[in-house]
Amino acid sequence: MTQTLLTREPALASPRSHDARQTGRSATRRRRTTRPAISHRALQVLRALSPVFVLVTWQTASWTGVLSERTLASPLSLIETAQTLIASGELQEAVLVSLQRASIGFVLGAGIAVTLGTIVGLSRVGDALIDPLVQMLRMLPLFGLVPLFIIWFGIKEQPKIYLVALFVIVPLYLNLVASLRGVDRELTEVADTLHLTRGERLRHLYLPAVTPGLLVGLRQSLGMAWIALIVAEQVNAGAGLGYLINNARDFMRTDVIVVGLICYAALGLLTDSIVRLIERRALRWRGVPA
Fold first, then answer.
1. SS3 of 228, please?
2. How many CB atoms are closer than 10 A to CB 249?
3. Is residue 17 part of a domain?
4. Is 99 part of any domain?
5. Within a domain: residue 66?
6. CB-based contacts of 281: which residues, under 8 Å, 6+ apart?
7. Cα torsion angle, 180, 183, 189, 195, sign
8. pLDDT in tens, 211-267
9. Is the dihedral of CA 18, 24, 27, 29 positive or negative?
10. For residues 277 and 290, what is the distance between their CA atoms, to the nearest angstrom?
11. Domain CATH number, residue 174
């Protein structure tokens, strides 16, 4: 007993060292709390100033001759070019044609993806028959299909629309199948206990469960749709933003090329913002702010 107490004596006789450690920790805590934190408003200002700084640097490099206009047009030149294209109506017409192609291709690809994803996610037979084919499609270099599509469908609208649709299918399909397979088994058991019909299961069980993954797949598919359209419109396009860019390339008009690329980016951001708005509205039940 005496030996046990002796061995415990150093631990019992260390209140000073314990107090010193506590003092050190409290001092460190005070130093952390007294550090100046960047406010949310300051971060917003920095976020707004970041692109402004890039534009000012870009324009200054053009004014000083460091950046040649033939290499990359200045921001002021881009504004003048955009105004000229808008005044002539060329830019609006090109944007509408490209938007139409992207919309048709996206609707076609999304319909195929949702149909195949639902079959595969809910049926083992569908998984065995369809999933290997989609995985093979995922591994194909889809840009390499452009010459084949031209041979099959000519140089009109079909090859461009079908290429966009192919790019849309895979990301939306994968997210939908993963969401369907991730449905909680306990919920399916409750549905069995309540004897819900197939339609009631889809509405009350599967639809709320797959909505988050489905919206993520939609955002990814929209991005892929615009990427596919950029490539498709570079090949034998008679109208659209790609046609505008190709003509500008022949005449070394970097200003028109950059304006066309900015339009592609703006359309992509616009469509992504629409899906994000739908996501906030649809997922309000999960506590996502609207």
1. helix
2. 14
3. no
4. yes
5. no
6. 290
7. negative
8. 888 888 898 999 899 988 888 887 767 788 888 988 888 888 888 999 999 999 999
9. negative
10. 8
11. 1.10.3720.10
